[in-house]
Design a protein that fits this description.
By secondary structure, the protein is of the alpha+beta class. It has eleven helices and twelve strands. A hairpin with a 4-residue loop joins β11 and β12. About 14% of the residues have low confidence.
């Protein structure tokens, strides 16, 4: 098995030569060959299981088909990551453009079947292409959203076009809430498939996050699985993107990408020390004052200190996991008859906290605490998943599951104690 190599992936984005953003993700170098083999193996197993359906009778085939559909349904975690990526990409595009109007387009059920997504999308594309042919300089971003009753409608930000070109007329209504209260609402005469509203864009930042909100408004909507979440014209401005990766080829534990970044020149937009993910940004046009630089440096030192402590905690946890994975048989085969491996054995079996080697009882206590936390998080995730996406279990089932988890952990602890006694008998 190939040894893991630490790697840092940096994505640099520049918005209109005004703002620079750095996204820094730390982890391990991806083994592309192993990932490709895993995907191919997963595909073969899936095809084989579906092919075996033809060997079953009608009733068994139906039950097996339901099981396979549930097994290979899109993963929730993948859908959430995809949705988050789409939202961030849309915000990046909107930051690079100046829009004039916020538009909402809905469909009249007497003209188009609103529940037919194909007909709705075809009607929208026809209107969009017609406008673009007449005004090629116009640019836009669009997001789909479902009504509560099930029909699709569209939200758009449109730029480089005026009222006459869009065919705006005053509806007689105004915005009643928020910072733009009193602003007139227009209707679009060129839109003949239903109802429409358009308002002038006064607060670009608010509108940008408002339209991006529609991507995550209904959490994970299965109707959008494997569907594009937003649409843009080809002439929108996009950020320039530069991706680099830094590989710790020497396998040095003190390798740190932040040693090569003047972090005091950046604002920390987002920092997750638990997942080793950091987002930095700065203005390329405005010069920072000395006071601002000192304040940023203070915040950066605090963030880097927390990050360093989290890395130390992860190393401790890694040693614990290594200890758990080495069964007594593996330890005997690897280290008992080879005196040269005694240093490796001590590295695996010794757990350091503040330069102190833990005793057997302290090791068991640490393992027990960590396992109990893992059980609680697993049970919470299980109950939340059942409640939100599948069938809710009764309280008796939940209690039964919790009891089963606890009993299995107690059994594991007893087994670990026996392994300690066995190691002592071997004199290791």
């Amino acid at each position: 098995m190939r040894e893991k190599v630490r790697a840092t992936y940096v994505t640099r984005k520049v918005f209109n030569n005004e703002v620079e953003k750095l996204s820094i993700k730390e982890g391990y170098q991806l083994n592309h060959a192993a990932a490709k083999r895993a995907r191919e193996r997963y595909k073969r197993i899936k095809e084989q299981e579906y092919a075996n359906l033809y060997n079953l009778d009608m009733l068994a085939r139906q039950k097996e088909l339901e099981r396979l559909e549930f097994k290979y349904m899109p993963k929730l975690s993948s859908a959430v990551r995809s949705m988050s990526r789409a939202k961030n990409n849309l915000i990046d595009i909107m930051r690079c453009n100046k829009f004039d109007y916020f538009v909402t387009l809905t469909f009249d059920k007497e003209k188009i079947d609103r529940l037919d997504d194909t007909a709705v999308r075809r009607a929208y594309r026809k209107w969009r292409d017609n406008i673009k042919k007449q005004f090629g300089h116009m640019y836009y971003v669009a997001v789909e959203e479902y009504h509560k009753k099930g029909g699709l409608h569209y939200h758009l930000l449109i730029g480089s076009v005026d009222k006459n070109q869009l065919g705006l007329v005053d509806s007689g209504n105004t915005i009643t809430k928020g910072r733009t209260a009193g602003q007139p609402i227009y209707n679009i005469t060129r839109w003949r498939n239903g109802f429409s509203t358009a308002t002038e864009l006064l607060d670009k930042t608010a509108a940008m996050y408002y339209i991006a909100k529609y991507l995550t408004k209904n959490a994970v909507d299965p109707r959008f699985f494997n569907k594009k979440r937003y649409f843009t014209s080809q002439n929108v401005n996009r950020p320039s993107v530069e991706r680099t990766q830094h590989i710790d080829t020497d396998r040095q534990s003190d390798f740190d990408i932040f040693d090569s970044i003047m972090i005091e020149l950046y604002d920390i937009e987002y920092g997750d020390v638990n997942h080793d993910y950091t987002v930095l940004s700065r203005s390329l046009t405005d010069e920072s004052s000395q006071e601002l630089i000192e304040e940023r440096k203070k915040l950066a030192d605090e963030y880097l200190a927390n990050r360093k402590q989290m890395r130390i905690d992860k190393e401790k946890s890694y040693v614990l996991r290594q200890f758990e994975r080495h069964s007594s048989k593996n330890i005997r085969d690897k280290y008992r008859y080879d005196a040269s491996n005694s240093e490796k054995y001590n590295k695996v079996m010794s757990i350091f906290f503040n330069d102190k080697v833990l005793t057997q009882s302290e090791v068991l206590e640490q393992l027990n605490q960590r396992r109990m936390k893992s059980i609680q998080s697993d049970n919470t995730l299980l109950l939340r998943t059942n409640r939100d996406f599948f069938t809710c279990k009764s309280m008796t089932d939940e209690v039964t599951n919790e009891t089963r988890f606890l009993s299995s952990e107690e059994y594991a602890l007893e087994k670990l104690k026996k392994e300690f006694l066995q190691l002592e008998e071997w004199g290791l």
